[in-house]
Structure formats: structure tokens, C-alpha cells
Amino acid sequence: MILLDGNLFNRKVLMQLKGTSRVSGLAVSIAKPNPPQGFSPGLKCPNDGFGVYSKDYGPQYAHCNTTVWNPVGSGLSYEDFDFPIFLLEDANETQVIKQCYQDHNVPRDGSGPEYPLCAMQLFSHMHAVTSTVTCMRRNSIQNTFSINPETVCDPLLDYNVWSTLQPINSSGKVDREQEVIIVATRIDSHSFFWNIAPGAESAVSSFVTHLAAAEALHKASDVHSLQRNVMFTFFQGETFDYIGSSRMVYDMEKDKFPLRLDNIHSFVELNQVALRNGSVLWMHTDPVSWMNESVQTQVRNLLDILSNSSVGANVTLQEAGYSQPLPPSSFQRFLRARHIPGVVLTDHQAAFQNRYYQSMYDTPENIRMQYPEGLSPEETLEYVTDTAKSLAEVATVVARALYRLAGGANNTSAIQADPKTVTRMLYGFLIKMNNSWFQSIIKPDLKGILGDVPQHYVAVSSPVNTTYLVHYVLANLTGTVVNLTKEECLNPDKTPNAEKELYDYAWVQGSLDPNSTTRVPYCVRSTVRLSKALSPAFELRQWGSTEYSTWTESRWKEIRARIFLVASKELEIITLVVGIAILVFSLLATHFINAKADVLFSIPRDPGAVAY
């Protein structure tokens, strides 16, 4: 059993440990501060093979031949280790293990260590084996022939969150003539360790900026008369080969979604925007579809509008170049289905600026979030950081560009993202979910989702906390408070003029009444909806698909660890021998007592009794 310093947790060391049979488990103490050289257990070419580039489409760009996006990626998350690996986040836990070792296992006076010795045991048994194909086949056999089937793995699944600037009928189909601009981002992250996925730069920075842009655009006075609609989309499961975006494209193609691919006018994606060099934000486009003259004209217009929207702002938008492919992005899944004009906005021109992509070190510190010492939780929630100001500037540029793309002709100076809203979201999604603002905007029966430590792993039980919170934050920022009672809000079908096909209604907790401990709830009407984020491979039962994501998560009974003292071999042998001796003696005694039972347990006659 090995206790490993976080700075030594790298591919070289783990491959050496994997190659020996002497290792039965590994406990990793988290490195503080973060490793300066960077750490990413993801691939050097994230989501390789599931984007748009292949032997049939831009083969020169496939497999990151032109640009290695994640150069520090070690691929550890994709290795198979036959021993459990645990992360120790609490320094006290690490110290307890070290102290136990030093007290009992360190040799004294040049001699070997004396018993009892300190030992550690890790429990992490997984039911699934080999691959998704194998475990899903076993699931299928169990469900077919067993009365009490035992599931060994589950597909990763959740929900995408989406809403529109102008309401659309969620149960019908949008007219083919109506054009819609999609603005998208991912809301999930990942790390080597289960349920630890802070994703500050890889996910949170972009979807917080997206939410702020949605709020800013909704405040424009003429949004309901714009020529084109805008759809705000938040994809789940993108870390695992584009689960959310591939499912939405699939549903659009199968007419299971209100929009068709033909309705999409253009596509704008936010993808890692917090680590800018100076004020520069890079605009990435697809060099293959650029060769299409019609698409090129539309992309050129899109780039010009974005660039012009940054004039006067502290953000400078520059083109990444036409000889470079798109970075890993949800937009690639839409391009696989249709040539769509689109742009991906990032803080990197080529390789990621993020040195902790898909790792437990992608924390608030990674995006330079800093707070003065001595602030209370409420003061920290409201404190506007420099990071929040920077992301609010990006959100302002995006909102103004979307307004122009949608056909807006008025002055855009009034469209301004709120840094205070951004700082609240950063605090809630990265530091403490259980805060007063999040408490006020969710339903009363969802209080349990507000854990202390935010994490953004997609998981197998849905919706996950992140999905719920993005849903209600988006509803709060873009929705309208309506004067309905609780019964009317919860049952819009029975409420006149509710237009449930166009709107979603939510009865939320509200803020605390200043003069009491009770809350003042209210009803929010918005266009926010959820759509399934489950890979089409599982509906098609194509568990070995190379077209769609096939990620599953193994089931397990428990994950736990313990440290204890182990006696010497001699003491163990003595204990065993004594135990055997006691067992033999017990058997002999039992046999003797049983054989002499009539003598030992006979009832003596009463001497006063007379027989006749």
C-alpha cells in the first residue's frame, strides 16, 4: 500500500506502479499548492474520434494532427488500474497515516520494525468488467431471464438545459422559415477521481459567462420583435465524447425536438474563456466548411459582428486563423450533421491555456479568484472579484453580438452584463452551493441539492445538482415573476392564459423575510426547458458504437478505507494454535459429556419415597 505525494502523481510513476504485482492500493495526498508544471489526466486530444474531423472530413486535422490541444494530458483517466486509487483531500487524514507509519513501521536503532505494524486497506470493488459492450450485454441478459436482475453498470446520462429569447411551443415544431441562433456551452467536467470535478476553467467560466449574456440580452427592450430567435443551450456530458450535443442533434434529425437543423442560422459557443492573455479572446472557425462560399460569407459576417461588438470593451476578439481546426467543442457534433456557420470563442489560440484540464486542480485559484481575508460567507457571495468583472465583459460582448445577429438595430450600449450576478454565480458554482442566493431561487423540495462542495460530474442519476441549478439560475435571470398563487403556479393547466406550451412555471422559495425567519416564495415564468442527454447508442442498443458516446459507470457496493495495526506472524501462529487447541478441547469435552450424559444428568431418587 503506497501513500503518494500529489506532486508525484503522474503517468511515469503510475505506469511503474502498474507494472508491479506488489502494489495493492494507492492513496494520493492532494498537492498544495497546485503542481506548477500542470496536471491533466485527460487525453492530449480530448474527445478524439467523436468530433467532426475524420478520414472523410478534414483528415489532415483528425486526431489533433495540426494542433495538440491539451499538451499536458497524460491519459491517466483512460488507463486500467487493477488496484484502487483514493484521493486524500484532508491534510489531517494524510498526517494520521504518516504518524501511524512513523510510530509503528519505522525501524529503531538499526533493527527492523517491531510489531504491531500499521496497515491500510482500501475497499473499491466494481461490478462491471472489460467494457461497455460486456456489461450492457450482462445487464440485458439479467433483465431478460432473472426475476431479480442485478445491474452491473449504467450509462452516463442527464439533461441538457435550454431556453429561447422568444417563447416557442415546446411540444410542437418551429416553422421551417424561422431562423434560430444557438449559443452553447458545456456544464460538466471530470477528473481522475469520482465525484471530484470542480471544472473552474473547463466548464464553469464558460457557462457562467453564458448565463450572464442571456440575462443581459433579455433586458434589451425590443427582444420580442427581433427577426431571429436565440436559443441558449447548456450541454451535459460533453466531457465524455459529446453526450449532450450528439443527443440534441439526433433528436433534431428524428423530429423529436422543437427545432430542426434547418432552423439553425448560426452557432456561437463559449469554451474556456477565463484565462485570457491580456484582453484577447480567440474566434475559432472550421477550415473545411470555410471552403464553401455560402458558408464562408455567413461566417465572415459572424466574425465581423463579434469583432465590432467588442469595440469599446476591455475584450479584443481576434481570429485564430483558417488553417487551424476547431478546438474540442459541441459545435463539432452539429457540423457532422450539416454545414452550419459557427464560431467557438476561447482564451487560447492553439493549445489550452488551462494546465489543469479535467483535473481536481481546476479550482477557483486556477482562474485567479481571490477574496480579501475576514469576509463572512454572505460578504464573500457579494464581493465582486476581478475574475467576475473580466467574465462580465466577455458576456457583454457576446450579448451585444447576439443582439446584432438576431437583427437588432438599436444602440447596444445599454446591453450590459452585471458583474455582481457573475460573482454570485462563480461563488455558488465553485465555492459553496449552499448560499442564500441559490436558496432563494430553487423549489422548496430541492433544498437537498445544495451541498457545500460544488462538483460538475455528469453521473448516472439525473438531474444532477449542476443541471438543477443551471436550470433555476437561468429561469431567475431570464424569467418573469408572475402574480400567481402556489396552486396556480404548480398547475398551470388549470390557470387561464398560462400558455404552458410556451412557458415553464416554477414556485421558488424566495428570500428570507427581513423581519422573520420565513421565506417569501413566488412564481417564476420562463422559457427554460430540459431535454434528455443520453447517448443515442443506448437507445439504438449499439453499445460498441464509434458514432456515439458509449460511456458507462460501474456499480459498486461501497467505497471506504481503514488503517489498523497488524500483529506479527509469530503472534498470529500462536493465536491460531491456541485457537485450534481450544477447539479440539471443546470437541473432546463435548463428546465426553454427551457419552456420560445419563450419569452426569440423571435425576437422583428421593430417599423418602416408598415403593409398593
From TrEMBL:
<dbReference type="Pfam" id="PF05450">
    <property type="entry name" value="Nicastrin"/>
</dbReference>
<dbReference type="InterPro" id="IPR041084">
    <property type="entry name" value="Ncstrn_small"/>
</dbReference>
<comment type="similarity">
    <text>Belongs to the nicastrin family.</text>
</comment>
<feature type="transmembrane region" description="Helical">
    <location>
        <begin position="573"/>
        <end position="593"/>
    </location>
</feature>
<dbReference type="GO" id="GO:0007220">
    <property type="term" value="P:Notch receptor processing"/>
</dbReference>
<keyword id="KW-1015">Disulfide bond</keyword>
<dbReference type="InterPro" id="IPR008710">
    <property type="entry name" value="Nicastrin"/>
</dbReference>
<keyword id="KW-0472">Membrane</keyword>
<protein>
    <recommendedName>
        <fullName>Nicastrin</fullName>
    </recommendedName>
</protein>
<dbReference type="Pfam" id="PF18266">
    <property type="entry name" value="Ncstrn_small"/>
</dbReference>
<comment type="function">
    <text>Essential subunit of the gamma-secretase complex, an endoprotease complex that catalyzes the intramembrane cleavage of integral membrane proteins such as Notch receptors and APP (amyloid-beta precursor protein). The gamma-secretase complex plays a role in Notch and Wnt signaling cascades and regulation of downstream processes via its role in processing key regulatory proteins, and by regulating cytosolic CTNNB1 levels.</text>
</comment>
<keyword id="KW-0914">Notch signaling pathway</keyword>
<keyword id="KW-0812">Transmembrane</keyword>
<dbReference type="GO" id="GO:0012505">
    <property type="term" value="C:endomembrane system"/>
</dbReference>
<dbReference type="GO" id="GO:0016485">
    <property type="term" value="P:protein processing"/>
</dbReference>
<dbReference type="GO" id="GO:0042470">
    <property type="term" value="C:melanosome"/>
</dbReference>
<dbReference type="GO" id="GO:0030659">
    <property type="term" value="C:cytoplasmic vesicle membrane"/>
</dbReference>
<keyword id="KW-0325">Glycoprotein</keyword>
<keyword id="KW-0732">Signal</keyword>
<dbReference type="GO" id="GO:0032991">
    <property type="term" value="C:protein-containing complex"/>
</dbReference>
<keyword id="KW-0968">Cytoplasmic vesicle</keyword>
<dbReference type="GO" id="GO:0005773">
    <property type="term" value="C:vacuole"/>
</dbReference>
<dbReference type="GO" id="GO:0005886">
    <property type="term" value="C:plasma membrane"/>
</dbReference>
<keyword id="KW-1133">Transmembrane helix</keyword>
<feature type="domain" description="Nicastrin small lobe">
    <location>
        <begin position="1"/>
        <end position="128"/>
    </location>
</feature>
<dbReference type="GO" id="GO:0099503">
    <property type="term" value="C:secretory vesicle"/>
</dbReference>
<dbReference type="GO" id="GO:0007219">
    <property type="term" value="P:Notch signaling pathway"/>
</dbReference>
